Amino acid sequence: MVALRDAARVRVAVPDARGGDQSLRVTWHADRRVYVLSTWRGSVCIASICISPDDAAALADVLASTAVSLPLVTDEPEAATA
Question: Which residues, 6+ apart, have CB-to-CB distance to 21 below 8 Å?
Fold first, then answer.
């Protein structure tokens, strides 16, 4: 994940968990008070949507509340039980 920050804009790029060259970019546009969520294939934007701060808060709530309930995954094999 890559995060960039300047005075007027905050941006994060998240790679597709399945691999490949697709990513999701989220950018805050303070001048318009909208978040732009865009889907990228390499360096080409293939889709985008603008959402309000209220909708962004609802999306963040879903992401945060489900992420904390996910089981911890490690690379270590499970111990055998007797």
Answer: 41, 42
CA angle 19, 62, 28 (to 5 degrees): 75
CA 60 to CA 66: how far, in whole Å? 10
Q: 36 has which bridge partners?
A: 27, 50
Edge-to-edge, what's the strand order for the sheet holding 34-41?
2-5, 9-15, 22-29, 34-41, 44-51
Higher pLDDT, 76 or 23: 23
Closest CA to 35 of 14, 15, 56: 56
Q: Please name the amino acid found at residue 42.
A: G
The pLDDT tens digits for 3-55 are 555 555 589 999 999 999 999 999 999 999 999 999 999 999 999 999 999 99
